[in-house]
Design goal:
Helices cover about 75% and strands about 0% of the residues. The chain has helices at about 1-40, 55-65, 65-100, 105-120, 120-130, 135-145, 160-170, 175-185, 190-195, 200-230, 235-240, 250-260, 265-290, and strands at about 45, 50-55. The longest helix has about 40 residues, at about 1-40.
Length: about 300
């Protein structure tokens, strides 16, 4: 028994030693900054002075005095509600095309995935800004077709957010690959049985493909909603929130409060409100999954 206890003790020590890098990262890079952020959200802190505790005044100020907060929230909600369905629908459509037996499919899959790798970079955002700017490709093409546009798409408050959404839809590669993997897991026998029964392609899609993909749709939906609420680079580089705050995303506004106005305590409060919003959406999806997500068991 003594030897067994000694062996278990050594085994536990070895396990904790292997966990040390993760524990170090967890406490240093996640837990401690999170607790500090919660504290700062309840202080008056501008990075220069000593934080002074003010309780929930920052949160009260957000909801009662800050009109820009509501505009940023409106823009972000609009972005998410338009982007997520379009990106998922487009990703599924491309995945179904690439799921067929064709030549050079490996090359096509790689090419379609590239935008997801480079799409969020500063360089691509600058290129996108040039395309839809005053002298960009989009304006030039409209001129060739005799459509005169005095204001560019990025300069018009009604269309600027649409450009940001379009760039987000263009980055569909990660969702497409997940859908493609899920499509390959659907048993071929289901399709063969449906064809024998005379089912049309549309009926096969709605009755077999889509229900079998609902767990994957559920996963992609959560991931894309979280990523949508965190949009920053596109709004910051392409429009910097303009024109007239029509593309002012929530995270961009949070960044401005922290590093433009040096209102760090208020920015931390905004960050935790965003965490609660994302958590609420995630909880709603998990609560409703029983009514639309179909698992094998």
């Amino acid at each position: 028994m003594t030897k067994i206890k000694a062996y278990k003790k050594r085994d536990n020590i070895a396990g904790y030693l292997l966990l040390l890098p993760w524990l170090f990262g967890f406490f240093l890079m996640w837990l401690i900054p999170m607790l500090i952020s919660i504290y700062y959200s309840m202080t008056d802190f501008n990075l220069l002075n000593t934080p002074s505790f003010i309780g929930f005044q920052n949160y009260v100020r957000v909801f009662t005095q800050d009109k820009t907060f509501w505009q940023a929230l409106k823009v972000t909600f609009s972005y998410v509600l338009v982007l997520v369905p379009l990106r998922l629908a487009f990703a599924l459509w491309v995945a179904m095309i690439l799921n067929q037996k064709r030549r050079f499919l490996g090359l096509y899959r790689t090419l379609y995935y590239v935008p997801s790798i480079v799409g969020g970079s500063i360089a691509v955002s600058i290129v996108w800004k040039q395309i839809f700017g005053n002298e960009g490709v989009a304006m030039t093409l409209l001129g060739l077709f005799g459509i005169e546009q005095k204001i560019s798409f990025l300069g018009n408050p009604k269309t600027a957010l649409g450009v940001i959404v379009l760039m987000g839809v263009w980055q569909f590669g990660s969702s497409m690959l997940i859908f493609l993997s899920a499509l390959k897991q659907i048993p071929v026998s289901l399709y063969e049985s449906a064809r024998v029964d005379g089912a049309s392609k549309s009926k096969i899609f709605w009755k077999i493909t889509l229900p079998m993909l609902t767990p994957t749709i559920f996963f992609n939906l959560i991931m894309q909603i979280v990523n949508g609420f965190r949009v920053f680079t596109e709004s910051y580089v392409i429009t910097n929130g303009g024109p007239m705050d029509s593309t002012l995303s929530y995270v961009l506004y949070l960044y401005q409060r922290a590093f433009k106005y040096f209102d760090m305590g208020y920015s931390c409060a905004l960050a935790w409100i965003l965490v609660l919003i994302i958590a609420a959406f995630t909880a709603i999806l998990f609560k409703t999954q029983d009514s639309w997500v179909h698992y094998e068991n």
